[in-house]
Amino acid sequence: MKRNFRWIVLCAVVLLSACSVPKFDPFSSDMKPLQEVTLSGTGKDKILLISVSGMISTAPKKGLLSTSPSLVEQLVVELEKAKTDKNIKAVLLKINSSGGTITASDILYKEIAGYKEKSGGKVGVIMMDVAASGAYYLSMPADMIMAHPTTVTGSIGVIFIRPKVNALLDKVGIGVEISKFGSLKDMGSPYRPTTDEEKALIQKTVDAYGKRFIDLVAKHRKLAAGQVAQISTAQVFVADEALRLGLIDKIGYIADAVKETKLIAGLPDDARVVAYRRRDIPEDNYYRTALVEPQTTSLSLIHIALPDIFTAGAGFYYLWPEAIHFE
Asked: Rounded CA gap, 196 and 206, in Å?
C-alpha cells in the first residue's frame, strides 16, 4: 500500500512539472539585450525612466534554479547604455525601496552623480510607496525630487544588523570555541554576548557612517541647523513633512514628475519617455517595474520567497527594516 502511494505521488509530481513548465531548461543562461521602448511622446529628445525597486545590494537575487542581477548591476547597466544615446537628455528614477547596504547605496549615489557629470543630462526622482534611508541616499544627486502624496521617506540613519544565537546555544548545551589573534578579531560574534568595549567601537563606526549621510543631505539639500537636527533622529516622514523639511522639492504623481523633468531639462512637450526592457511587454506603461529576466529558468513546485531582510547578512545598512519589501 505504501509503495503504491509513493508511485502515485511521484507520477503526480512528474505530471505537474511537465504541464506547468514545458520548456524548462535549467542550464540556459541567455539574456536578451536591453531594448528601448517608448512609453509616451513622439519627439526626438528622450527621458529615460529607470525603476529602482527593492533591496539596494550588490548581491544577485538567487532563486532555486535562477539568478537575477543585483539592483546595483541593473541600474549601472542602464546608466551606461544611456550615456551612449545623445538623445537622452534626462533620467527619471522611479524609486520604491526601503534602502539597503551602505556600500551599495553609496555606489549608486556615485554612479548617478557620475552620469550627470559625464552626460550633462538632468536627473529627476519620483518616489513611490517608500524611498527611505539608502533609497534617499541615492536620490541626493538629483536635480528634482518629487514624492507621491502618500510616500514615506526619510529614515536618514544607519543600522548595524547582527544575529545573536548565544542564548539559544546555552539552552541546548552547544558551544562554539574560537581561537584568535587580536582581542577584537571576533567582535560582533553571534556566539557570545557583545562586550562594552565592542559596543562602543561598533557605535563609533555607526556614528561615522551616520555623519557621512547627514552631511551629504545637508550639502545637497542646503538645510538649516534645525532641519538637520530633526532629520538626524532617522525618523520617517510623510510627503508633506518631507516637503516642509526640504527633503523633497514637490509632491505629485509620475505624470507630474515627467512634466517637471522636461522643464528642468529644457525639453519640449513632445519629448519621449522611454524605458529599457529585455522583452516586449504589451501595453507597457510608466508603472512597469520589470527590467531583467532571470539568467536561468526557475522550476519549483513549492516556492517560498523570503523577505530580503531574512537573507541579508550581518553588516552596516542604510535601511528602514520595518518597511523592507516582501518580494
From this structure: 15
